[in-house]
């Protein structure tokens, strides 16, 4: 058996706009998904997912889009178990040229699902890394990131950026613009996360932004404006200017909100953080529900969030310096 882990992430700037070629700056955080992969003697796939928001469960099936496991579980639970993992295993089969090989896959994750902290990218990166190593191939980080990107691209119906997967594979703060992916020097940022207990569907939210952008010139301008915020944000990051970073995060949230991807609970957590004196706050990831990210070196934001109706969990997140980790 091979076991790999990969971190989740927050976006300092640029989610959604990055899908259209604007730059984005995500930052890996110390919340990880661990995936164990063991080759089977038949061609079946058995998935055991421990820490889905729902109870742990196991499915076993022969793999491929037409073969759905015959178990008594809701469609959404099956899709959750199968979507990204199924596609990640296809990447493993493709890289290693072992089309028929079956696996037992075990997933344990500290990253809430669908909440903007990049659980899909972390699971895809860790699964592809463990799966290929189980078959004797160790991928370079760039290829691993590329293969994980293909997984997200497929599951999100052809609408995905390389940002989440590159960040999860390499760790640290990164900058992604189209195919250009690089690591950034980042100061130790005082990151606080607020989680509303909910989730958003990345594919649907991305499709919604695309429709707005196609319909209205001002929505396309809003996407371009996010790119401008990101370019300013890169400078603030290089200068270690946390106050300016915060102001730009506030602006970025306003633009995301205009694009329809915020929600009442995300907005109230953002305002609670600002009222508590955070340098800035914004939603992170696809939105719709899930998490916000704020910058505050004091305990005020975390405390305020823990009393904010609609906020289920508030925690400080350390930057994850390491991306994929090979555990076994
Ligand atoms: N612990 C897990 N076990 C199995 N599958 C998981 C697990 N965590 C995440 N996934 C997969 O990732 C999907 C959620 O990905 P989605 O892109 O919607 O959200 P996210 O990656 O958490 O947030 P964002 O993309 O906004 O940062 C789940 O439906 C499931 O397919
Ligand atoms: C919304 C989005 O920009 C980030 C999701 O974490 C989608 C993507 O980049 O693939
Ligand atoms: Mg995702």
From TrEMBL:
InterPro entries: Galactokinase (IPR000705), GalKase_N (IPR019539), GHMP_kinase_C_dom (IPR013750), GHMP_kinase_C_sf (IPR036554), GHMP_kinase_N_dom (IPR006204), GHMP_knse_ATP-bd_CS (IPR006203), Mev_gal_kin (IPR006205), Mevalonate_kinase_arc (IPR022937)
Cellular compartment(s): Cytoplasm
Annotated SUPFAM superfamilies: GHMP Kinase, C-terminal domain, Ribosomal protein S5 domain 2-like
Alphabetic keyword roster: ATP-binding, Cytoplasm, Isoprene biosynthesis, Kinase, Lipid biosynthesis, Lipid metabolism, Magnesium, Nucleotide-binding, Transferase
Binding site for ATP: 112-122
A GO CC term attached to the entry: cytosol
GO terms of biological process kind: galactose metabolic process; isopentenyl diphosphate biosynthetic process, mevalonate pathway
Membrane-spanning parts: none
Pfam annotation, one family: GalKase_gal_bdg
Domain (GHMP kinase C-terminal) ranges: 235-301
Pathway noted in the entry: Isoprenoid biosynthesis; isopentenyl diphosphate biosynthesis via mevalonate pathway; isopentenyl diphosphate from (R)-mevalonate: step 1/3
Domain Galactokinase N-terminal stretches: 3-37
Single GO MF annotation: ATP binding
Assigned EC number: 2.7.1.36
Cofactor(s) it depends on: Mg(2+)
Residues at the catalytic site: 164 (proton acceptor)
Reaction catalyzed: (R)-mevalonate + ATP = (R)-5-phosphomevalonate + ADP + H(+)
Function, in words: Catalyzes the phosphorylation of (R)-mevalonate (MVA) to (R)-mevalonate 5-phosphate (MVAP). Functions in the mevalonate (MVA) pathway leading to isopentenyl diphosphate (IPP), a key precursor for the biosynthesis of isoprenoid compounds such as archaeal membrane lipids.
Similarity field: Belongs to the GHMP kinase family. Mevalonate kinase subfamily.
Description of how the protein assembles with itself and partners: Homodimer.
Protein known as: Mevalonate kinase
Taxonomic classification: Archaea, Methanobacteriati, Methanobacteriota, Stenosarchaea group, Halobacteria
Gene name linked to the record: mvk
